[in-house]
Here is the input.
Amino acid sequence: MALQPNEIGEIVQGFDNPAGLQSNGLHIQGQKFMLLRADDRSIYGRHDAEGVICVRTKQTVLIAHYPPTVQAGEATKIVEQLADYLIGVQY
Here is the structure.
């Protein structure tokens, strides 16, 4: 998955100030996702039956897309656990 610089910037800015994501949604590869949740650690978005999970660690932002065949809760649990691991090893 390749994101455009403006899409990355939109997500990174959303961790500290979700107002733009709340009013405009977030964009991944040109596709608009409705914002479900945004805080200083995690951003969740949904488009029809698919979704995106973004989690900020100390040095990176994980961005995961899940298709309609995957339950949102399962995808969220896996990505959040990976983020917990990375945070635990100071990444």
Observations:
- DSSP finds three helices and five strands in the chain.
- The mean pLDDT is 95.
- Residues 5 and 76 are 24 Å apart (CA to CA).
- The helical segments are 5-16, 19-24, 72-88.
